[in-house]
Amino acid sequence: MVSLAAASFSIPEISLTLFFHPVVLVIVFLLFVTILFIFRSRWLPIFSSLPWYRSSAAASRSSLNEASSFLDDYRAGLSSSNFDLSANIDGDDSRQGLDTEARAAIVRAMNTDPSLSFDEARRKYFVQKLKENNIGPDGLPNDPKALVFHRN
After folding, report:
1. Which of 129, 107, 9, 128 is nearest to 54 (CA)?
2. In this structure, what are the phi and psi dihedrals at residue 122, rounded to the nearest 5 degrees?
3. Transmembrane stretches, by residue range (predicted)?
């Protein structure tokens, strides 16, 4: 019989340098990013409620040159209490989301000035469009030949 006292067992020591090996670091990083991607539906709403994230990352994350849905526009921060897209989303509105040109201009304005709210950026875009079409800020045409009837 062999006695256990006579046998020598040695447990190999794992060096800390193994954990800092570049291959191990890359694998751990890829695993971490994969887990974040898989569970993004749980942690992304937390960040989308932050104003700095809404104005920069969420807005730039959505594609500005492609047609979008109302849900995409809502996720990009293009909704407010004055311009609420939730009725369109809840009603399963199948129409395309906001106008692509207007959406891009509003997002560009919000990214240029992070303190600019969605409503203020939308107002600036609307005033700019009125000027381009020769319409005054009061909604009346600037054309001297225009005939306008006023109600008293």
Report:
1. 107
2. -70, -40
3. 18-39
Residue type, 65: N
Task: Decide which of 102 and 14 is more confident.
Answer: 102
Per-residue pLDDT tens digits for 30-81: 999 999 888 877 777 776 666 655 544 444 544 444 557 777 888 777 888 8
What count of other Cβ atoms lies within 10 Å of the Cβ of residue 80? 13
| Secondary structure of 93-116 in HEC code, one letter for each residue | CCCCCCCHHHHHHHHHHHHHCCCC
Does the reported pTM lie above 0.70? no
Q: What's the confidence (pLDDT) of residue 88? A: 76
Percent of the chain with pLDDT over 90: 7
User: Cα torsion for 88, 116, 120, 105, to the nearest 10°?
Assistant: -70
